[in-house]
Design brief:
- The chain is of the alpha+beta class and 120 residues long.
- It is built from three helices and four strands, in the order H-E-H-E-E-H-E.
- It has helices spanning 3-12, 47-51, 91-95, and strands at 35-37, 57-68, 71-81, 101-103.
- The strands form two sheets. The chain has a two-stranded antiparallel ribbon with strand order 1-4. Strands 2-3 form a two-stranded antiparallel ribbon.
- The protein is elongated and about 70 Å long.
Length: 120
C-alpha cells in the first residue's frame, strides 16, 4: 500500500482513541492497580517490605493490638508504600499472611513525586 493510500484510509476511518475521562477504559479482571492496605488486618510482620523488589514498602511505627489465628498480638510496626515508585508486582499481596495488602482492580493515580505514600 502506498503512503497516500494509507493516509486516506486513516483520514476516513474513525479515531481509535477515546475521550478519557469522559469515556472509561474497560479494565481486565487480572489488572493489578491501586494498592490498598487494611490496617485492621495487618499484624506488622514485615514480610511485605522484605519481598518488595522495588524496596518501596517501609515499616513505620503503628502500635496497636491485633488478633491473628485466635491470639492477641501487640503490633509495633505497619507498612507504608511509596505509591509512585511501586511497580505493582503483587509480591506483597502474595506473601501477606493475613491478606492485609491487596492490589485492587482499579486505576491508580498518577504523578511525579516519588515520595508520596499510601495514607490508608
Amino acid at each position: 500500500m502506498s503512503v497516500l493510500g494509507e493516509m486516506f484510509e486513516n483520514f476516513l476511518s474513525r479515531p481509535i482513541t477515546i475521550l478519557y475521562p469522559k469515556e472509561k477504559v474497560p479494565i481486565p479482571a487480572a489488572f493489578r492497580g491501586r494498592v490498598a492496605i487494611a490496617d485492621d488486618k495487618c499484624i506488622g510482620c514485615s514480610k511485605c517490605s522484605l519481598v518488595c523488589p522495588a524496596q518501596v514498602i517501609t515499616m513505620i511505627d503503628g502500635p496497636r493490638d491485633v488478633e491473628f489465628k485466635g491470639k492477641n498480638l501487640a503490633r509495633k510496626k505497619r507498612p507504608q508504600v511509596k505509591l509512585f515508585k511501586c511497580i505493582r508486582c503483587g509480591l506483597c499481596e502474595r506473601h501477606c499472611p493475613t491478606g492485609a495488602i491487596v492490589l485492587k482492580n482499579e486505576l491508580s493515580c498518577s504523578g511525579t513525586d516519588g515520595e508520596i505514600v499510601l495514607t490508608e
